[in-house]
Write a structure and sequence with these properties.
This protein is of the alpha/beta class and about 425 residues long. It has a domain of about 160 residues: Rossmann fold. Helices cover about 40% and strands about 15% of the residues. Strands 10-9-8-7-11-12-13 form a seven-stranded mixed beta sheet, sandwiched between helices. The chain has a six-stranded mixed beta sheet with strand order 1-2-3-5-4-6. β12, α8 and β13 form a beta-alpha-beta unit. α5 packs across α6. The structure holds nicotinamide-adenine-dinucleotide (NAD). The site of nicotinamide-adenine-dinucleotide (NAD) has 23 residues, from α6 and β8.
């Protein structure tokens, strides 16, 4: 079993990257780049990156993965700056990571608690970072950090200890309410409203990653008449051109073997070694909702969809999207515009914690705040997608891709921190 250190301390890293010779405005160095180390051995147990605080403290999740690197945390922190800025939230971008095996931690809750405790102690001095859950961490971990901070701050009313805490402690259940899926749903509707040849009803949808984001997105789209023709999880992939039964997929997704034990009709069933083949199946909408880099130059030639809505963070990259757009007429709607539902939920929770009158207003709209939060997410994503499509349509240079225009929008809003939609 992993041996934990006695203590974790912070070590500042040089934020300049000498490999970037002529940095552009979107490559400005992060404000804080920190290693979380065992002072006895110098071993790096994790990282904290505060990318940009022009809009407010850096809000972003804590990822737990055995192969996590400072570079990955830095890239994710940057994505949070863009997400929070594009959504006009009063937060900047930040991210943290712990280098360890989340499965080992899930098997040993005591060990995980001790590790989170050490991490919380170290995080306390990073005043400009606000944690949230990410892959490998959950609402209980955030509550633990929050309580540690409450003790140190002498108050239970603060933002520093994190967001997406358990509902019984005043948190918003991001995944249970399907908030990120709701944003993706709004993005699809926005495109439908602006493009006369695109209709959600009967549209064929493939979803990579049938987890919290993927399964809720499937439910929402199938409720309005879309056909979910393909889904995958870590165990396998299923494809049927006439559509899969979403209710059954939802019922089995958390069972051992996941969606692979689906009993309905399928035309193709791929095992774990072939799950990526699903990405190449013909469809209208492809939703990557699993890992980073699902779509790259490796498979860009074989993708057969019309539109890609990026549920996952960084499921592709600018080069691939440029190629897909300009050579294959496939538009990719960027992660930091369409998958912001979760972070908007976090922002609502933080504001409710700090501002009792806002809290009353949110709760007055019903369903413990879900009605208000859903509406804010829907309006934010719907309007941002519409604005970006209109801007792209108005350009004489047809080469510009959605991501480039989205980046411009996020950077413009970074310069106007007083504009807040919360
Ligand atoms: P999750 O852990 O609930 O689900 C992930 C799913 O992907 C699981 O079903 C897993 O089996 C599957 N998977 C993993 N690797 C795969 C692969 N190679 N091929 C196919 N399936 C694979 O996670 P989630 O909360 O649904 O998040 C999914 C993605 O969306 C992540 O990239 C996450 O960072 C991003 N995201 C999530 C939220 C949120 O609110 N949960 C918000 C923004 C972005």
């Amino acid at each position: 079993m992993t041996q934990l250190p006695n203590k974790l301390t912070l070590e500042a890293c040089d934020a300049r990257d000498d490999t970037v010779r002529f940095p552009t405005s979107d490559e400005s160095p992060p404000e804080q780049l920190i290693r979380v180390v065992d002072p006895a051995t110098g071993y790096s147990w994790g990282f904290v990156v505060v990318d940009n605080t022009r809009r407010g403290p850096g809000l972003g999740g804590i990822r737990m993965a055995p192969d996590l690197t400072l570079w990955e945390v830095r890239r994710l922190a940057r994505a949070m700056t863009l997400k929070n800025s594009a959504a006009n939230l009063p937060f900047g971008g930040g991210k943290a990571g712990i280098v360890c095996d989340p499965e080992e931690m899930a098997r040993n809750p005591g060990l995980k608690r001790d590790l989170i405790g050490l991490f919380a102690e170290a995080l306390f001095s990073v005043e400009q970072y606000i944690p949230a859950p990410d892959m490998g961490t959950n609402e209980t971990d955030i509550q633990q950090i929050y309580e540690y901070f409450s003790e140190r701050l002498g108050t239970g009313q603060h933002m520093r200890g994190g967001a997406a805490r358990p509902p019984e402690n005043g948190g918003i259940p991001i995944d249970e309410w399907g908030l990120t899926a709701h944003g993706l749903f709004a993005a699809v509707h926005s495109v439908e409203e602006l493009e006369s040849d695109f209709k959600v009803k009967d549209t064929r949808v493939i979803i990579q990653g049938f987890g919290n984001v993927g399964s809720e997105t499937a439910s929402k789209l199938s409720e309005v008449g879309a056909l979910i023709t393909g889904v995958s999880d870590i165990h396998g992939a299923l494809w049927h051109p006439a559509g899969l039964n979403v209710a059954e997929l939802n019922a089995i997704r958390r069972e051992p073997g996941g969606i692979f034990h689906y009993s309905g009709k399928v035309e193709k069933r791929f095992g774990p070694d072939q799950i990526d083949w699903l990405l190449e199946a013909p469809c209208d909408i492809l939703i990557p909702a699993a890992r980073t880099d699902a779509l790259t130059s490796r498979n860009a030639d074989r993708i057969q969809c019309r539109k890609i809505f990026q549920g996952a963070n960084a499921p592709s990259n600018k080069m691939t999207e440029y190629y897909l757009h300009n050579r294959r007429s496939i538009v990719s709607y960027s992660d930091f515009i369409v998958n912001v539902g979760g972070v908007i939920g976090c922002a609502v929770e933080l504001k409710m914690t700090m501002d009792p009158s806002y809290r009353d207003r949110v709760l007055a709209q019903g369903e413990n705040g879900k009605t208000y939060t859903d509406q804010l997410i829907y309006n934010t994503v719907f309007n941002n997608v519409r604005t970006l499509i209109e801007r792209l349509n108005g350009q004489s240079n047809g080469d510009v891709i959605f991501r480039e225009e989205a980046l411009k929008l996020a950077l413009e809003r970074l310069d106007r921190p007083e504009e807040i939609w919360l």
